UniProtKB/TrEMBL annotation, chains A, B:
TM spans (from-to): 30-50, 78-99, 111-140, 165-188
Compartments, record wording: Cell membrane
Similarity field: Belongs to the Casparian strip membrane proteins (CASP) family.
Principal subcellular localization: membrane
Subunit composition and interactions: Homodimer and heterodimers.
Protein name stated in the entry: CASP-like protein
Coiled-coil regions listed: none
InterPro entries attached to this UniProt entry: CASP/CASPL, CASP_dom, CASPL
Domain of life: Eukaryota
Keyword list, A-Z: Cell membrane, Membrane, Transmembrane, Transmembrane helix
Topology of the protein relative to the lipid bilayer: Multi-pass membrane protein
One Pfam family linked to the record: CASP_dom
The species this protein was found in: Hibiscus sabdariffa (roselle)
Record domain Casparian strip membrane protein: where: 26-173
Length: 192, 192
C-alpha cells in the first residue's frame, strides 16, 4: 500500500480504500454467519437427538414394577418449535452467507436487508430459546406448587442434550444481535 | 406549503422538507413507543395480578378432602422473568419516548442508538414471551409423557391472565421489531 514511490498509483489507491473496508466487513459478516449456521445446525441436531429410555415406576403399581419409558424431544411442543426455529434460522444463515460472499458491490441494499431480517430472526431464535429453556427448567427443578415432577434426576443424558441445545441457541441469538448491530453500524458509517 | 404565490419563500421551503419528514418520523416513533410502553406495562400488570385460589384435592387423601390452594405468577421462574423483562422494556420505552420527543435535530445518532438497542430488547421481550408461553402451554394442555397435569381446567381466571399477558407481550415484540426496522430504514434513506 506504499504509494510514495509511485505517484501515478496514488489516484488509484484512494478509491481502493472503501473497497478494502467493504471487503473486511464482508469477511467479518461471512465468518459470523458461518458460525451462526454451525450454531443453529448443532442446536437443532443436539435437540433432535435428545432421546433416552429408562426403567421407571408406574403410578398405581408397587415401586418394584418398572417399565421402560422413553423421553424424547417430540414429547414437548416447545422443543418441536425449537427445532423448527433453528432449522429456519440455519437456512437463513446459508442464504445470507451466500449473499455476503456474492454481493460485494451493492452493499447498501444488502446491508439494509440484513439489518431488517436479522431483527426478525433475533425474535425467532430468542423466543425458541425462551420456550425450550422455560420447559427445560421445569424438567430440571420441577414445580412443587403444581406437582410437576422433575425428570432430569432420571433422564440425565436427555437433559444434557436439552441444556446444550438451549445454551448453543442462546449463543446463536447473541450472534444474530451482533450481526444486526454490525449491519446497522455500517449503514450509519456510510452516512457520516 | 404553496410557494407559487410567494417566490421569496421558495428558498426557505426547500430546507424545511427534511425537517418535516423528520418530524413525521419522530411523531410515528413517539406514537409507537408510547404504545410499546402501554403494552409492556399492561403485560406486566396482568401477569402480576394473576392469582387465584381454588379448593383442590390432595394426593394421598380421599377426593372429598379438599384444601384451598393458590396459583400465582411467582410460583414459576418463567413468569417472574416475564415481569422483569416487561418492566425493563417499559422503562426503556419511557427513555426512548423522551429521547424521541426532545432530540429532534440529532436524528442520525439517536436513530443509530434506537436501531442498536431495539434489537437487544427484541431479544429480551421475545425470550420472555417464549418462556412464559412455553410454561403456559403446559398449564393449558399438560404433558402426559412426563405426567405434568394441566392446571387451566381448575384455575380459569389465572390462565386467562397468563394467556392475555403472553398475547400482549407478543404484540410488544412485534412493535419492537417494527420500531427497529423503522430506525434502520430511516438511516438507509439518509444515505441515498
Amino acid at each position: 500500500m506504499e504509494s510514495t514511490d509511485k505517484p501515478a498509483t496514488a489516484t488509484e489507491a484512494a478509491p481502493l480504500q472503501p473497497a478494502a473496508t467493504a471487503a473486511e466487513y464482508s469477511a467479518l459478516q461471512v465468518g459470523l454467519r458461518v458460525l451462526l449456521f454451525a450454531a443453529c445446525v448443532s442446536a437443532a441436531v443436539v435437540m433432535g437427538t435428545a432421546k433416552q429410555t429408562e426403567m421407571v415406576s408406574v403410578p398405581g403399581f408397587p415401586p418394584t414394577v418398572r417399565v421402560p419409558f422413553t423421553a424424547k424431544y417430540s414429547h414437548s411442543p416447545a422443543f418441536i418449535y425449537f427445532i423448527a426455529a433453528m432449522s429456519v434460522t440455519g437456512l437463513y444463515s446459508i442464504i445470507t452467507t451466500l449473499a455476503s460472499i456474492s454481493v460485494s458491490r451493492k452493499t447498501k441494499t444488502i446491508l439494509l436487508a440484513f439489518a431488517l431480517f436479522d431483527v426478525v430472526f433475533v425474535g425467532i431464535v430468542a423466543s425458541a430459546t425462551g420456550a425450550a429453556g422455560g420447559v427445560a427448567y421445569i424438567g430440571l427443578r420441577g414445580n412443587n406448587h403444581v406437582r410437576w415432577n422433575k425428570i432430569c434426576n432420571v433422564y440425565h443424558k436427555f437433559c444434557r442434550h436439552i441444556g446444550s441445545a438451549v445454551a448453543v441457541s442462546l449463543f446463536a441469538a447473541g450472534l444474530l444481535v451482533l450481526l444486526s448491530m454490525i449491519s446497522t453500524f455500517t449503514l450509519y458509517k456510510k452516512i457520516r
